[in-house]
Structure formats: C-alpha cells, structure tokens
Known about the structure:
Blueprint: E1 3-7, E2 10-13, E3 18-25, E4 34-39, E5 46-51, E6 59-61, E7 69-74, E8 79-84, E9 93-99, E10 109-114
Parallel strand pairs: 2-10
Antiparallel strand pairs: 1-3, 3-8, 4-5, 4-9, 5-6, 7-8, 9-10
Amino acid sequence: QVQLVESGGGLVQAGASLRLSCAASGGTFSNYAMGWFRQAPGKEREFVAGISTPGSTITNYTDSVKGRFTISRDNAKNTLYLQMNSLKPEDTAVYYCRTGVPYYWGQGTQVTVSS
C-alpha cells in the first residue's frame, strides 16, 4: 500500500509561486502514473495535472492551469512535484496527489491565494 504526503502549501499573494511536493512510500513509485487534484470550498474535487509512468513521460493539465503549472516527478526521491506560477485567487483550494490505479490519495495541503 502506498502512502502519500503532500507539503509546500501556504498563503501567498496573487502572482506569486509555490512548489508542492508529494512524497511517496510503501510502494514502487515509478510504477504509477501520478496526478494532482484540488478541491475548493463548496466545490467538487477536480483534476489539475497528470504525469505518466517513466519511459513515456506524458503530462496533461486542466485548461485553467496550462502555461502556469508544471507537474514533474523524481523517481529517485519517490517524489511528485507541482510548480505553480502566476497564482490566482481562483487557485485557492486543498491540493491532493493521487496515484494511478489502484488509487491512493494523500491528505492534502492548503493553498490560499489572496488578491
């Protein structure tokens, strides 16, 4: 069973940057495609970005973050990253990382962007 722990969230002003990390343990990290999701207050959890397994590294993003967010992974460190630039107030949410099937979720990290 895989355990995921997110970190790197915080309170920033609009236009700032943050880098989220997701540390994995208990499984073979490199076997999994990975993704970032977020959930804003009163809204459903939504997909933000995904990255395939190594060997064919493909990334995809929801339209609202394209050009601002970058997902990456370091398999030697068993860590997934989300670089978030030009943050907007509408990016405020709890951010979660998740494995591909079978699905494992982290506990989330809060990102708050003030205007």
